[in-house]
Each structure stands twice: as C-alpha cells, then as structure tokens.
Design a protein that fits this description.
Elements: H1 8-21, H2 27-37, H3 42-57, H4 59-69, H5 77-92, H6 98-111, H7 116-131, H8 141-144, H9 148-151, H10 156-163, H11 168-178, E1 184-188, H12 195-204, E2 210-212, E3 217-220, H13 225-232, E4 236-238, H14 241-248, E5 257-261, H15 267-276, E6 281-286, H16 289-301, E7 307-311, E8 326-331, H17 347-350, H18 353-368, E9 374-384, H19 393-403, E10 406-413, E11 423-429
Helix pairs in contact: 1-2, 1-3, 1-5, 2-3, 3-5, 4-5, 5-6, 5-7, 6-7, 14-15
The protein binds S-adenosylmethionine.
C-alpha cells in the first residue's frame, strides 16, 4: 500500500506520537511547527488541531474507556494512540460515521506498518466500543458513575487542590473549561490601529468576530492567516481576559515609574506602556534570553517608546545603576498555569505537588528580592494564571503578613466554558 503521508489521520498519529514519546514537548508547539513546515489547507489544519488537542484534553476519560474495553490489559503505546483517536472521534464528533472511523484507522495502521495481529487487536477493541457505544455516551450510568475528575480528564491531585479554594460546582465548571477550545481575544494597539479600522479590516477580510464593548476586545472563534500579519506589524496583541483585567488593576498614570518583573514576552508591557504615557517609564525585567528577544521585538514593532528592557535575574543582585524606587511594581512570575488548561492542555498531566511547592517558593523569593524597591504610597500587583492556594491566597497572606502591605483589590477568575482562561491577581499598597 502507498504511504499516504498527507492523510490528516496519519499526520495526527505522528504528532501525537511525538508528543507522547517526549515529555518536554508542548502539543501546541508540535502543531505550529508542523503547520509551518508543511503546506496544508485550512480545513485539514483545523481537523488535525481539533483532534490532537481533543485527545490530549480528554486523555484520562479515553484511557478509562479503553481499559474497560480491553479488560484492563496492558496495551502497546502506539496502539493506545490509535484507540484514543478513534474513540475520541466517535464520542466527540457526530459527523464521522462508524465505518469511516474504522476504515480510516486501519488505513493509517497500514501507513504505520502495523502487523496483522496489531490491526486485528485494534479492530477488536473498536468493534467492542461500537457494539457498546451507548454505555460510553454521556447520559449512561457507567459514565455518570465515573469519578468527576476522570469524566473531565483531570488528575486527582488537581481536583483535590481545587477543593481547597472552590466549591464542587466551580471545580466541575473549571474542568469543563479546561476541555474547551478557547476563543481568540484580540486587542488593538491604539498607536498602530484604531478600533474602527481594525473592525473594518476584519469585515473586509470576511473574518467573523464579536466585539466586547466593556473590555474593548475583538473575540474570534478561530485564528486565520491575517492575524499573523497584524501581529507582525505590531497592530494587535492577543491576551486572555483574566490577564487583561489583572494588568488593568495597576493604577499607574502618566509620569509614573513602573517595574515589571517577569515581563516577557510582553503581553502586559503594552498596557503598562499606555498607562504611563509620554512622561512615564516602564522598566521591564526578565531573565529568559529567548523570551526577552520576543519582548524587544514587540516593543520595536509596536513603537513603545517608554519601555526599557533588562535581561536580568531578579533573584541576583541588580546592577548598581538600576533605578532604586518605583511608583508601582508588577510581578507576573512563573506559575503552574492551572487556570489556563484549555490553552495549555498538557500542563495538567505534567504538574506535580512538588512543582507547585517549588513555584510557590520561587514566587516568594521574587517578592523578597523586589518589594523593597516600592515607594511609600506605591502599589505592588501580583498576577498568576493558576488556581492553587499555595500560589495565590498563601502568597497574598505572605505579602500582607511579611511586608504589612494592605490588599486594595483582589481578583480570582474561575475558568468557565464562556471564558476558559482564569487566574488570580492582588493589588497591594504600601502605606
Ligand atoms: C508568566 S511569565 C510572564 C508573562 C508576561 N508577563 C506576559 O504577560 O507576557 C513569567 C516570566 O518570568 C520570567 N522569570 C522567571 N524567573 C525569573 C527571574 N528570576 N528573574 C526575572 N524573570 C524571571 C520568565 O522568564 C517568564 O518570562
């Protein structure tokens, strides 16, 4: 049989193989990389994108079903990939008929040079699945009796961590949100393009969008090639709504000096730059060489003339000529990303209790090494895109108790299906 390497299912299996064999790869990066190096039409791209991400998002549930079908026998890794894809397609896409799922699976198995016995195993398990399909549909007792974290494919330890801060209904909403395809939230950079001009551009290119009047955001259901163009011209930036609302808590105004720590790639730098206007200055610090290049590029293309970039580690001593005191400090440290699981589907499987404790310590160290640079009367804004007590409420209490700063505003955004990206932010003032 001819090796049909352009068959979307063959591509899906290869992308998933790469992802599951390398714990370091992000699924989105593998997809982007593949799309950049291979010419595909938009329909195939969308299909590949939805299935690969869908399989990763729903992995715990899919594996539970496969384990039930195979009577808990150990299954080879490659065969697991085939089964996850076929069962995902059948459960989550009404448009693909059963016979097509099986025949496409076997065709792809040929492209992977699977043996006869491996193919008959796949045929047997998927056949068993289709014969019992009602058992695995959402209104069935078997499915409804599964622990909720299995049903929504979230590791038990995350579910338990969320029990520290959320009610059961909120945890379920959060898990559903983690399995949702997020919309694209786009903001214009006023210096480069006005809201009416961006709206006309989208209309001209027949790009469908909703406009969020309160937050002045364009909401698109999917990306398209024109977005890259607007980004490369520095006319727009993409940011989750929680991140947008969080950075807006910083009360910086024209003429203020702001220290931004953990600045790159610079989503929030743009807002800070526009707040301090012509007379103010943003000092953006980040220790990552690669990310700082992205920040510098963004500043250049968006003409942000009031931002100074420092490639520094805030945990080390800063150069003697680094400015002493600031009107405002914004700290956006590394976190476990557990409120951004729709955008980072693999984060839930890679996070561990130990990582969260280490991140919480890193966040404290970053605070200890920067908070003394705040002027009296100034504000300190702490932002995360996660939902764990260790990285949010415990840090808030640490800042209050250790440094006697008063909480002025607090924002906890719980991810929802409508807006699947959330997080935490707290604004403190030094008196
Ligand atoms: C959550 S990301 C920042 C996202 C960014 N604020 C934005 O909105 O685009 C955290 C950043 O902290 C930086 N970082 C981590 N440890 C650091 C340190 N010790 N000193 C300075 N930056 C650090 C990382 O390189 C990373 O870019």
């Amino acid at each position: 049989m001819k090796n049909d390497i352009n068959n979307p299912r063959f591509i899906i299996l290869n992308i998933l193989k790469k992802y599951y064999l390398n714990n370091d790869f992000f699924i989105q990066d593998i997809l982007e990389d593949y799309f950049q190096n291979n010419k595909l039409n938009e329909i195939d791209k969308q299909f590949i994108y939805n299935i690969t991400l869908g399989v990763v998002r729903n992995q715990i549930l899919l594996d539970e079903i496969i384990s039930d079908l195979s009577e808990k026998k150990k299954i080879e890794k490659t065969l697991m990939l085939f089964l996850r894809v076929s069962i995902f397609q059948s459960l989550f896409s009404d448009t693909i008929p059963q016979y097509a799922i099986i025949s496409e699976m076997l065709k792809t198995a040929d492209n992977f040079h699977l043996r006869k016995d491996q193919k008959s195993f796949l045929r047997g398990v998927t056949g068993g699945f289709f014969r019992n399909i009602d058992k695995y549909k959402s209104d069935n007792i078997w499915i409804n009796n599964l622990p909720k974290n299995v049903l929504y494919s979230h590791p038990l330890f995350i579910y338990k961590k969320w029990q520290d801060i959320l009610k059961e209904e909120q945890i379920i909403e959060c898990m559903k949100a983690g399995n949702t395809i997020p919309s694209l939230i786009i903001f214009n950079i006023p210096k480069k393009i006005s809201i009416p001009d961006l709206a006309s551009y989208f209309n001209e290119k027949l790009i469908q969008f909703n406009f969020d009047e309160t937050n002045k955001a364009f909401i698109l259901q999917r990306t398209n090639p024109f977005i890259k163009d607007l980004l490369s011209k520095g006319q727009i930036y993409i940011q989750g709504m929680h991140q947008h609302k969080a950075i807006d808590l910083c009360p910086a105004k024209d003429g203020d000096k702001v220290l931004e720590i953990g600045a790159a790639p610079g989503g929030k730098t743009i807002t800070l730059s526009s707040k301090v206007e012509k007379e103010g200055q943003v000092y953006s610090v980040d220790k990552s060489d690669t990310r700082i290049k992205m920040l510098q590029q963004r500043i250049k293309i968006s003409d942000l003339t009031n931002v100074l970039v420092f490639n520094l580690d805030i945990l080390k001593e800063l150069p003697a000529d680094f400015p002493g005191k600031f009107d405002h400090i914004v700290l956006d440290p590394p976190c476990s990303n557990l409120a951004e699981l729709s955008r980072r589907p693999e984060a839930r499987y890679r996070a561990t209790e130990e990582d969260i404790n280490q991140l919480s310590q890193l966040q404290r160290n970053m605070i200890d090494n920067s908070i003394h640079r705040l002027k009296n009367g100034g504000t300190f804004l702490y932002i995360t895109c996660t939902l764990t007590k260790n990285e949010n409420q415990d840090i808030r209490d640490y800042i209050q108790n250790q440094y006697h700063l008063k909480t002025e505003k607090e924002l906890q955004t719980i991810p929802s299906i409508a807006e699947p990206a959330g997080g935490f932010a707290c604004l403190f003032r030094k008196h």
